[in-house]
Structure formats: C-alpha cells, structure tokens
C-alpha cells in the first residue's frame, strides 16, 4: 500500500478495546492520527454524541471529513481508501 500522509482523528477511550484495535491498525498501516480521549475532553464527548444521533459510540473517527463509527478493519481501510490516504499497490 502507498500512504498519503494526512491527519486522522480517533475519538475514543483508552480502555475501549475497539478503540485500541483501530489505533493499532492505523499504526500498522503507518497512518498518522490524533487520538482524542473523550473521557478527558467534554467537547470531544459532545461531538461524538452529536455525530452519532445522541449516542456515545467509540471509536468515532474523522477521516478527512468522513465520519466512521466503530469500524472493523475492512471498513476502516475502505474509508482511508475513499480519501486516498492508502492505495492498493
């Protein structure tokens, strides 16, 4: 895969296993990202609820304007590819 560096924002909690999995997968893909812990940031918590129709779902990602909630690896890569952050070689 070829990677175009851009910032991906991951909103979640440190203790959430799916958040940990997404962060690990982004790391394996060498995708730079910013992690925002919603336990420590009330504005971020409110944003997560707002984009998820009032429900706090983590992780919620902002991938260059695409909002992705609780993605599995396949959906995560699809969103990254949609924004051309990764490309199949």
Description:
- The chain is α+β, with helices and mostly antiparallel strands and about 90 residues long.
- It has one domain (about 1-85): 3-Layer(aba) Sandwich (Glutaredoxin).
- Helix content is about 35%, strand content about 25%.
- The chain has helices at about 15-30, 40-50, 75-80, and strands at about 1-5, 10, 35, 60-65, 65-70, 85.
- The strands form 2 sheets. The chain has a 4-stranded mixed sheet, sandwiched between helices. A two-stranded antiparallel ribbon has the order 1-6.
- A hairpin with a 2-residue loop joins strand 4 (about 60-65) and strand 5 (about 65-70).
- The relative contact order is 0.24.
- The mean pLDDT is about 90.
Summarize this entry quickly:
The protein has 89 residues and is an alpha+beta fold.
The total of beta strands comes to: 6
How much is the average pLDDT? Answer: 91
CATH homologous superfamily designation: Glutaredoxin
> Radius of gyration, rounded?
12 Å
- Which structural class fits the helix and strand makeup? alpha+beta
SSE order: EEHEHEEHE
Distance between the termini: 5 Å
Strand content: 15-25%
- The second-level CATH architecture is 3-Layer(aba) Sandwich
List the total number of helices: 3
| Broad CATH class | Alpha Beta
Largest sheet: 4 strands, mixed
Give the overall shape. globular
